[in-house]
Every structure is written in C-alpha cells, then in structure tokens.
UniProtKB/TrEMBL annotation, chain A:
It comes from Desulfocicer vacuolatum DSM 3385. It is found in: Cytoplasm. The keyword Lipid biosynthesis does not apply. This is Octanoyltransferase. Its EC number is 2.3.1.181. HAMAP family: LipB. The lineage of its organism: Bacteria, Pseudomonadati, Thermodesulfobacteriota, Desulfobacteria, Desulfobacterales. It catalyses: octanoyl-[ACP] + L-lysyl-[protein] = N(6)-octanoyl-L-lysyl-[protein] + holo-[ACP] + H(+). The gene is lipB.
From TrEMBL, chain B:
It comes from Desulfocicer vacuolatum DSM 3385. Residues 28-110 form the Lipoyl-binding domain. The keyword S-adenosyl-L-methionine does not apply. One of its GO terms (cellular component) is glycine cleavage complex. Belongs to the GcvH family. One of its GO terms (biological process) is glycine decarboxylation via glycine cleavage system. The keyword Cell inner membrane does not apply. The modification N6-lipoyllysine is found at residue 69. It holds the Pfam family GCV_H. The gene is gcvH. Keywords: Lipoyl. This is Glycine cleavage system H protein. InterPro entries: 2-oxoA_DH_lipoyl-BS, Biotin_lipoyl, GCV_H, GCV_H/Fam206, GCV_H_sub, Single_hybrid_motif. The glycine cleavage system is composed of four proteins: P, T, L and H.
Amino acid sequence: MPFELMDLGLVDYEKALDLQQQYVTQKKNKALETDMILMLEHPAVFTLGKRGGRENLMVSEDFLKEQKVPVVQTGRGGNITFHGPGQLVVYPIMDLDRAGMGVADFVHLLEEIMIQMAGDVGVTARRSSANHGIWVENRKLGSIGLSITRGISFHGLALNANVDLTPFSWVNPCGLSGVSMTSLENELQQKSPKGSISMPVVKESFVRHFTRAIKST
Amino acid sequence: MKEINELNLPENLKYSKDHEWVGVEGDVATIGINDYAQDQLGEVVFVEVPEVGDTFDAEDEFGTVESVKAVSELYCPIAGEVVAINEDLEDAPELVNESPYEKGWIMKIKVADASELDNLMDKAAYFEMLKG
C-alpha cells in the first residue's frame, strides 16, 4: 500500500481541512492511489465535534476573541478540543477498506503509535478502559477523532509535545470533567526541571513508528 | 474487538460490503449495521437517521453513526423509500451495540427493485469477504 508522509509545518485549521477534503475526494474517485499522511501543527484553535461540545467551553466567546483563539465546527467524532503550536497533529487520509482495517483496528494502531512515541522519550503512556485517547496516569496526552467516508479515513490524532497547556483549562477536554491534560514536555519536567522536547524529534519518531506499523499490517 | 469467528451473523439476513444488514419481509426491507460494524465502531453515541419519505439509490449515504472513536457514514444497500425509522435510537443509540439485529435496527424501506437483493451477500459470502 503506497503512502506518502508530508510535513506541512504550521497550517490553519480550515486550510488543512480543505486539503484533507481534496485528498478524500481524489481517493473516493480513485484518482489518487497513494494514502496521504499529513503531519502538521495548527495555530491556536478550539474545534467542536460533529455534535458540538460548545457546552464544555468554560470561558466566554469574548474572552476567546481577546485571546485570538477561534472556535471551529468540524465533522469529526468527539467533543471540543484545543490545537496549538507544539502539538503534533496527524491527518491520515487512508483507504481502510483496501488495508483491510476496520475503524477499531485503525484507532488501535494510532493509539499504539502514540504510546511508542511517548516511550521513545521515556514517558509511560497507556490506553484507558474508561476513556479513549492516550493517558499518563489520569492526564491526557493524546487524542483521536476520525471520520470515515467510503472507507477513507480523515481527521486523525493530536499528541501534545510541548504545547502550551493553558487553553485546555478553558474547556472540559473532550467533554470529560475531572481530568487534566498533559504533554510530553510537561511529563519530562516532572522528572527534571530542564526536561524539554523538540517537535522535529517527535515528528521523526512518528514517521518511524507509523512506517513500521503500516508495513506490518 | 471480536475475532471474526466470534461474530453474530444471522443466517436469515443479507449483508452489504459496507457492513450493513438487510432483512426482507414482503416488499419492506429492514436495515441496520451488523455485529462486525458495531464492534469496530465501539460505543455508539449518536445515530443520524433519515426521514420517512426520503428515497435512496443503492450505495447512497443515508445517515451517520458516531461512536467514541469515529463518525462513519451509512450506505443504503438497496434502493427504496424510507417507510419507518427507529425513533428509539435518538435516546438510546447504544441499542445499535447491544442489539444490532433487533432493537438496534435503523430504518425500513419499501424496496424499489427486488433484484438488487441479489447483489448482497449471504452469511457465508460476507464471512469470506471479512476473512479477506
């Protein structure tokens, strides 16, 4: 199964969505055989799931305007979440039917990749039986929210590398109350105040684990 | 996730490649998602259903299922006009997981062309498709 990994850098949410939809359309029309794996970061933005999540926003829209953080409606699964620089976002536009993968298989694969990426830098992450995503104890490190159309996946995963975690405190992340968000850097700093993480290292780790995971399916 | 041989796939139903099931009585077909689809999706939190009177061709999108993992489209296995929808799913979408072939049915359509049923798979053929 041919695939291409693209590093797009910092991309506006809507622009990235347009690009995903173009690739999805091309793949639906069989005009594009290659699965396109988009790696990027978004400027600060809150996104709502298909059925919203605005009720989990704990600050006023005026406050968000002052902070210059827009709120965007999306068609993915899941509830409200935050994206910002320092968070690795990956949008895999993949033909799951061709790969013989169901949704659960694919989610499991993406979760496994995030767990391995955390392990690469010495952070022990795991799945939770109660909630989806990737966790370090009761702190959420990574999220998954997919859409599937005609067997083609879009939207994807978000892994907190060294993103500013403050805006997560303005919402109940993913509609869950009583949990907190974390990042790889935040976890490393629990062990050593000088702990830090760089996005190129995180991206390289994703490429390595993704490539190995896809080749073994 | 269930193993393929653990799936509950009733003999008396037809199956589409998109993992819907079809049960026919007279000229009315009841449609839902099968045990494989509900298991893959995980806990269903919302089902977007069509309206009575809507008409679909085979393979048209007729709704979506949202689970904790993903939003997936539903495709109409055969052409027809919607004569009933399962209103219970609005308050209890988890019926799709708990009872995919009975309480978790999604819609009933008046079959436009009964010969299209021949394009669907029986249990054995669907099972073979899943095994790849």
